Fold this sequence. Notes:
The chain folds into two domains: 1-28 and 75-118 and 169-246, TPP-binding domain (Rossmann fold), CATH 3.40.50; 29-72 and 120-162, 2-Layer Sandwich (SIR2/SIRT2 'Small Domain'). Helix content is 34%, strand content 19%. The protein has helices at 37-40, 43-46, 49-54, 56-72, 77-89, 105-108, 129-135, 171-182, 202-209, 235-242, and strands spanning 13-18, 94-99, 114-116, 119-126, 137-139, 158-162, 186-190, 212-217, 229-232. It is globular and about 55 Å long.
Amino acid sequence: MDLRPLGIHPDSSVVVLTGAGISAESGIATFRDSGGLWEQHDVSQVATPEGFAANPDLVWRFYSQRRLQARSVEPNAGHFAVAALERFLGERGRFTLVTQNVDGLHQRAGSRRILPVHGSLFRTRCADIECGKGLGSWEDESLHVDGAPRCPECGGLLRPDIVWFGEYLDPAVESAAREAIADCDLFLAVGTSGAVWPVAGYVDIALARGARTVLVNLEAPANVSRFSEVHLGKSAELLPLLLPGT
Length: 246
Ligand code: BV8
Ligand code: ZN
């Protein structure tokens, strides 16, 4: 396999976009592969505001099960390679990790400059946006399996600080991601099917900027034609070979 490193040097400006595939070798199911999460659960029931309104206890059981699983696994060589790239680029280079993942494995692998565009499994906030504005979201490792927890301020329902389908991404996080991509010379997507918007359109921002677009993925996703370089295979095997600093 002719795997030349990606030619990243300390002055490079790199954005890495990750999806569920980078956590697959840690043992966390992806969403749309066979046996994936959306085969076992009805998306509309567990990952939409309507589903939460209809059955908050079911949604908390779903996310509590994912909290339990994410805590029981370890980051893999792919996560560590991305964290090493961030250290390699250091202060001089520009590096941003945009992740759709909510499992916290990038943080545990040592990544710091992270934009969690779909939220975080281990953060909770009040479902009432008026009250939530005041409280914001907070770190919450507990498993709410015996029913949806209540807000200490307003008594209303608490919810996972996750972006569900039909919900807007956090504007500050989204614009920081778009800004970083509009300024990069290398856009590296890892382990994502490119199926979910607006993140699926981020590669086009990189293309418009004239950046190199590289994909590391198990299979060719729908938007594979957007990438000037494609490495098909497992990210835990490929990333340590492709990225400097590991
Ligand atoms: C929004 C919750 C504005 C967190 C998630 C434009 C066109 C069409 C539809 C839309 C559009 N704009 C908005 C929409 C609707 C919707 C959408 O995109 N729907 C799609 C499905 C058609 N988008 C939204 O609702 C977004 N909001 O746009 O707001 C708005 C507001 C109101 C009304 C309209 C618009 C919100 C999107 C966020 C939704 N939340 N999840 C959670 O529970 O985790 S999305 C969910 O999918 C996860 O966050 C996940 O991260 C994300 C993307 O999936 P992937 O990470 O790519 O995972 P997947 O399983 O799909 O693929 C894994 C890949 O890895 C595969 O390719 C596989 O080959 C590869 N792989 C596997 N193993 C390995 C590997 N690669 C390497 N190594 C391996 N070992
Ligand atoms: Zn509240």
